[in-house]
Backbone:
């Protein structure tokens, strides 16, 4: 596997991460294992962003896809929290594949949106990435990932949680604490949607 220095060190924006994933999507079929290898297994935050971004796209309409992404987000976040050096995912996730064409089109749809976010990213509210606050973004990602499989049938809930994880991971990638705070907005909207659905 390619080292993390080669694969992950240049991934400092959403656009760069999407471009790397789109390069992999040029294959007829792209497996989760291909994505992990392309990013480097030590690239925790970029790898966290991939399933989070995917669940925001129309790919979330594929049955059980949101659950798969949620489990991946949970596992990656937990391993980041405990300080593992490399990401481990079970083989049944690593072997899961999708049409490269479908993945590429879904990522292309959100590429302009990602570029706009990148233009407004800068280091701010950096206290959120120092003790005792620095565990909060990863802990939130862990909780949101764990929730996704249980909300599979609640309309839009997984996409809203995916958007929250995307913003939290982007905040960790760029040290922009504003995005960590903004991540609370889709969570609040998701809570409201769930309450409306259940009542």
Residues:
């Amino acid at each position: 596997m390619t080292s993390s220095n080669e694969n992950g060190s240049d991934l400092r924006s959403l656009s760069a991460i999407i471009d790397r994933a789109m390069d992999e999507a040029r294959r007829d079929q792209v497996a989760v294992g291909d994505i992990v290898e392309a990013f480097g297994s030590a690239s925790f935050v970029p790898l966290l962003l991939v399933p989070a971004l995917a669940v925001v796209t129309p790919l979330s309409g594929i049955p059980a896809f949101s659950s798969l992404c949620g489990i991946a987000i949970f596992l990656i976040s937990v391993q980041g929290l405990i300080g593992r050096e490399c990401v481990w995912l079970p083989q049944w996730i690593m072997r899961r594949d999708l049409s490269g064409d479908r993945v590429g089109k879904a990522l292309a749809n959100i590429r302009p949106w990602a570029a706009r976010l990148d233009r407004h990213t800068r280091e701010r509210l950096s206290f959120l990435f120092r003790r005792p606050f620095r565990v909060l973004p990863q802990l939130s990602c862990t909780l949101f990932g764990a929730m996704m499989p249980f909300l599979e049938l609640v309309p839009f809930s997984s996409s809203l949680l995916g958007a929250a994880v995307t913003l939290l991971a982007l905040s960790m990638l760029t040290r922009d604490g504003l995005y960590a705070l903004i991540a609370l907005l889709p969570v609040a909207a998701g809570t409201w949607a769930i309450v409306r659905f259940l009542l």
Q: What stands out?
A: The longest strand covers residues 29-31. Residues 4-198 form one domain.
